[in-house]
Design a protein that fits this description.
Radius of gyration: 20 Å
Oligomer: single chain
CATH superfamily of the largest domain: Ribonuclease Z/Hydroxyacylglutathione hydrolase-like
Distance between the termini: 53 Å
Bound molecules: zinc ion
CATH class of the largest domain: Alpha Beta
Strand content: 15-25%
Largest sheet: 7 strands, mixed
Order of helices and strands: EEEEHEHHEHHEEEEHHEHEHHEE
Number of helices: 10
Helix content: 25-40%
CATH architecture of the largest domain: 4-Layer Sandwich
Number of strands: 14
CATH topology of the largest domain: Metallo-beta-lactamase, Chain A
Strand order of the largest sheet: 1-2-3-4-5-6-7
Shape: globular
């Protein structure tokens, strides 16, 4: 069973694959930050909530990814609570076809059992500072997803979504998902100086010092940029992708292919923004050249 861990007076998180925040408002209700990746984590969190005699007043999603929203429908149906998310994220949470469509550049393969359809689309409202209980605040964390936000509880605990990832994620996946590499670098730089009593990233345990992990992530992004740039001169996208995944030793399947082609394109775009790479169409093929 996943455990609910207290990280400050009224702030808790369920330690699981995608950590879920819980803040006890002290009036018999609580609010959640994200809603988990799997039925098991949703069920374990709900047992912990019930054992405390609490009701869920609202769920605040940091962003739209499937592993952060899977329990939305359950908590809404069980408690009649509202679901909130940052503006652009609301569209992706309400319509579960959109997220796989942008990875697969169209209708996904194995449509009936595709991972991305595990969460049922759920109506949600826009997450803005005025809908939060007193003492909470939002912090834009661009880079990992369109509109991701961090959420600060009145105990000065920061829930950071996927702005910072575990070292082992880079070691094992090599290319974790980002939507904008250079914005992520800026966000990581900002987080290094963020003050707080405790920081809760989604896929690694809470810590009172987030700066070392931010520095690690920035270096890992820079290393990945250099790795991809070294394989990008006078090559088509498909050739670059094949070289990068081969040299990282990544075993591809259709789902990995979809997510990693998305991610490699994001790195290539960042390198173009950096002024070290350019792209052109040649005989119907997208070809990259170092500058
Ligand atoms: Zn994410």
């Amino acid at each position: 069973m996943f455990q609910l861990i207290q990280c400050a007076a009224n702030t808790y998180y369920l330690k699981c694959f995608s950590n879920i925040g819980m803040y006890d408002l002290g009036d018999g209700t609580c609010v959640l930050i994200d809603s988990g990746d799997h039925k098991k984590s949703v069920s374990d969190l709900n047992k912990a909530i019930e054992s405390r005699g609490l009701r869920v007043r609202a769920v605040y999603n940091t962003h739209c990814h499937i592993d952060h929203i899977t329990g939305n429908r359950f908590f809404r149906d069980t408690y009649g609570c509202e679901i909130y998310a940052p503006h652009i994220e609301t569209f992706y949470i309400e319509e579960n076809l959109l997220e796989p469509n942008y990875y697969y550049l169209g209708v996904p393969t194995n449509r009936k059992r595709n991972f991305f359809f595990r969460a049922v689309g759920t109506k949600c409202k826009e997450l803005t500072p005025d809908v939060l209980p007193a003492g909470f605040s939002l912090l834009p964390l661009p880079g990992h997803c369109y509109n991701m936000v961090g959420i600060q509880t009145p105990d000065n605990v920061w829930f950071l979504g996927d702005a910072v990832v575990d070292k082992t994620t880079f070691d094992s996946y090599h290319l974790p998902l980002f939507y904008d590499i250079n914005k992520s670098m800026d966000t990581l730089r900002m987080l290094e100086t963020l003050e707080g009593a405790c920081f809760v990233p989604s896929h690694t345990p809470a810590t009172d010092n987030i700066a070392p992990l931010c520095r690690h992530n920035r270096k890992a992004l820079l290393d990945n940029k250099a790795f991809i740039l070294a394989r990008s001169d006078n090559r088509t996208f498909e050739d670059i992708f094949a070289a990068v995944t081969h040299d990282f030793g990544i075993d591809l399947d259709m789902d990995k292919y979809a997510k990693l082609t998305f991610t490699v394109r994001i790195y290539l775009q960042a390198l173009i923004e950096d002024g070290v790479l350019t792209a052109s169409l040649e005989d119907g093929k997208l070809v990259y050249h170092r500058i």
